[in-house]
Amino acid sequence: MQARRVVESVDWVGAIDWDRRLFDALIPLPDGTSYNAYLVRGSSGTALLDTVDPACAQILSARLAHAGAEHIDFLVAHHAEQDHSGAIPLVLAAHPETTVLATEKGKTMLVDHLGVPAERIRAVRDGERLNLGGLTLEFLHFPWVHWPETMVTWLPERRILFTCDLFGSHLATSELFAGEDAGVLLGAKRYYAEIMMPFRNLIEKRLERLTGLRPAYIAPSHGPIYERPEFILEAYREWLTAPPHNLIVVPYLSMHASTRRMVEVFVEACIRRGMRVEQFDLTDPDLGKLAMLLVDAASIVIGTPVVLGGPHPKAAYAAYLANLLRPKARFLSVLGSYGWGGKMVEQLAAMIPNLKLEVLPPVLCKGLPGADDCESLEALAATFAERHARLTTVGIPS
Ligand code: FEO
Question: Where does CATH 3.60.15.10 sit in the chain?
Fold first, then answer.
């Protein structure tokens, strides 16, 4: 386990978690992840920026030993979540000389969540600078990416911005740098969709402060380092601010093929009218993929049969998740089949209070869809086409 040089005086000492497949008991990790920690050494002081998930603590220790980091003056905790701060107690036990630096809120959370002794933590102010001897760490509070205590660190002498979760990607790779790899961008988009999208308005407002620094490197705490920051900054501008695409996402499931038949008729009708459609089966879904589709979609149409008087529980879960993720979508509808009645549409509508959507009239049918139902689905597709035409779209992504 060796440290890897990022630039002069800055080494990567993190861990690659090739085999992890689930995060927060919720988020699928098809490509694993990494926990990046960085060692910054000035002439008069050494700082460790973040740690790793506790399961990988021995890897961090081995890399620190390889780097010859016998003395660590400061441990910068950008974010109190366990995957970055979970190994802090172990580092502090091995290094009695180390002081943890965090925001005031971060200090509280490190004590509450990880049992870090309060006397080992010093709160830093927004904009506060720390001189390590020829190298300076400047701490910039950046709350709600994605917890309230978060901050980023700017190292002006090397023009590196350490952003912890922000701009990260759940991607296990041997590459230290991202280049302009499409796979990295896909991982970053998945990460944005799952973690950052609910906070997109706050991130957008604060992004200028970071871009104004004109970093030469962006070093997140998941995935590779961006040595051409515009690669990820351009992507974030698009995800955060561009109008939604001419795209309808149709998360659906079907128990006895009636709802599936409705979805097929609707999807064909949308394609004929020039809309891009993603038909997404909720039976055994990769919810990260659904989240990625919601980054760009102008519309969501939920397809579900009625089960015990309401939506199928898996459709309800998808609606609940979409509500939490707060995507840009502007229009919503529901289609589905029922046996003898129920309040499916009302129940689904009550699950998405965060979404500022125009709800278009749903199409429900009893049992198998007949000719009249198919006409209603054609009419619904025509209404979506008309709504999409009103949007200033940025085209269909490749
Ligand atoms: Fe990578 Fe919010 O932790």
Answer: 4-241
